[in-house]
Every structure is written in C-alpha cells, then in structure tokens.
C-alpha cells in the first residue's frame, strides 16, 4: 500500500505539466518522511535551515538534489556550498560575493536564483525590479556564481487576482532578463507553494516548492 506521502506526490505529479519540476519542501520533517517521498521517486528536496539541511544531506541518499529555499546569511554559504544543487532566494549582493568566494575555493560554480520582491508585504525579502539589471551586471564579474533564474513569493492572501498579478510580474521580469542571458542556463522560474502553485504554473513557473500538501502541516 502506498503511504499518504507517496499518494500526495503521485497526485501532485499527475496534475503538473511535464516541464514543471516539483521540489518537495521537507523543512522540519524527519528523515524517514523524506525517505517515503524518495521511495515515490522524489529527488528534489527543499530545506530552509542550514543546519537541518546539512544533517539530512549527511544521512540521506546521495542522488538527492538539495535546494536551499530559505533566507541565507552569507556566513552560512560555506556549509552548503559543497553539495547544494540550487540556492533559491539569493537576496543580497553579500550572498553573491560569498557564493563566489566559496565557489572559488571548491573550484566550481555555485548555482542560485535571484529572489525578487513582488509581494505587497514589505517583510518579504528580495531585490526590487529596478535593481535587477545592476545585480545581473554584478553577477557577470563573479566567475564562480551561476545564476539560473528567478525566485518569487506571492503575498499571503486569499485574493487570487492579486497572487496572479504578482506571479505575472515575476514572469515578465524573468523573460526580460532571460533575453540578455544564455537561455540554456537561465531557465528557472521558481514560484508557487501548496496554496498557490496552480496559479504559479499558469503564469509560467518552472519549479514549484511544495511542503504541506506533501508532508502535512508544520
Ligand atoms: C515553507 C516554504 C515553502 C513551502 O510552503 P508550503 O505552503 O508548505 O507548501 C515554499 N517556499 C518557501 C520559501 C518556504 O519557506
């Protein structure tokens, strides 16, 4: 019999267009629950806390691709740099500089997404749209950083049209920057969570980050 977690993953996958990647957000959930998702074929996992991510990475299968999706202090980049697949939510120049430094030490490029602020809440982090072109200029000088796209979070609201317009804004910015980049590399638009991923996919998301709909509430 399939477990609840497996059921949830199969169900989500059946509703997703094939080009959209499902990232299972497993923050605060114990390793055996991640293994249930793994048994269902899930390989992309998202975590928010550096220590928790490092602990899980050390005990779970090596073919898991780990996404760091939380706010990241620059002084913690070094702990995840050796193994992280993609850092969503790069929201400051200091983080970019630190990624470059750690990438140089490891002699590899550290992949990340630039987080943009599209929500109404001031508290949500990310660059403002008018800052993006100068951020991308800065990135050009960072040999060990590979920016693969954009990450965005919509406002926490029931108002679907507002959520949609925020995702639409993120997609427009993503497309605009993509014009100036190598499209084989810059091709990730990370947006959509349990409550809003359907809208996000309709608005062009390529990677959704889903936690509670897979693992239950936290
Ligand atoms: C926790 C979290 C998610 C997943 O949220 P759910 O509502 O549980 O799907 C997605 N993205 C980020 C950045 C998160 O912190």
Please characterize this protein's 3D structure.
With 218 residues, the protein is an alpha/beta fold. The mean pLDDT is 96. The protein is globular. The chain has one domain: TIM Barrel. The site of pyridoxal-5'-phosphate (PLP) has 13 residues, from strand 8 and helix 9.
Radius of gyration, whole Å: 17 Å
Q: From the helix content, strand content and strand pairing, which structural class follows?
A: alpha/beta
How many DSSP-defined strands?
8
**Number of helices, counting only DSSP H or I runs of 4 residues or more:** 9
Which architecture does the CATH hierarchy give at level 2?
Answer: Alpha-Beta Barrel
| Net shape | globular
Write out the strand line-up for the largest beta sheet, numbering strands in chain order. Answer: 7-6-5-4-3-2-1-8
CATH topology, which one?
TIM Barrel
% residues in beta strands: 15-25%
- Helix fraction by DSSP (H/I, runs of at least 4): 25-40%
What sequence of helices (H) and strands (E) makes up the elements?
HEHEHEHEHEHEHEHEH
What secondary-structure arrangement, pairings included, does this model have?
Blueprint: H1 4-15, E1 21-25, H2 31-39, E2 44-47, H3 50-59, E3 65-68, H4 77-80, E4 86-90, H5 93-106, E5 110-116, H6 132-140, E6 145-152, H7 160-178, E7 188-190, H8 197-202, E8 207-210, H9 212-215
Parallel strand pairs: 1-2, 1-8, 2-3, 3-4, 4-5, 5-6, 6-7
């Amino acid at each position: 019999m399939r477990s609840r977690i497996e059921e949830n993953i199969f169900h989500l996958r059946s509703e997703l267009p094939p080009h959209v990647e499902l990232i299972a957000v497993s923050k605060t959930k114990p390793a055996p629950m991640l293994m249930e998702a793994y048994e269902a074929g899930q390989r992309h996992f998202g975590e928010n806390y550096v220590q928790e991510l490092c602990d899980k990475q050390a005990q779970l299968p090596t073919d898991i691709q780990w996404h760091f999706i939380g706010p990241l202090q620059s002084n913690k980049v070094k702990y995840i740099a050796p193994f992280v697949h993609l850092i969503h939510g790069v929201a400051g120049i200091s983080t970019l500089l630190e990624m470059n430094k750690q990438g140089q030490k490891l002699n590899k490029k550290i992949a990340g997404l630039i987080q943009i602020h599209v929500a109404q809440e001031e508290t949500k982090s990310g660059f403002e749209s008018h800052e993006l072109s100068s951020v991308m200029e800065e990135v050009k000088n960072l040999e060990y950083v590979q920016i693969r796209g954009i990450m965005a979070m919509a406002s926490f609201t029931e108002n679907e049209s507002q959520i949609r317009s925020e995702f639409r804004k993120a997609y427009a910015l993503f497309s605009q920057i993509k014009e100036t980049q190598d499209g084989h590399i810059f091709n990730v638009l990370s947006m959509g969570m349990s409550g809003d991923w359907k809208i996000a996919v309709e608005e062009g998301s390529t990677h959704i980050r889903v936690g509670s709909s897979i693992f239950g509430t936290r």
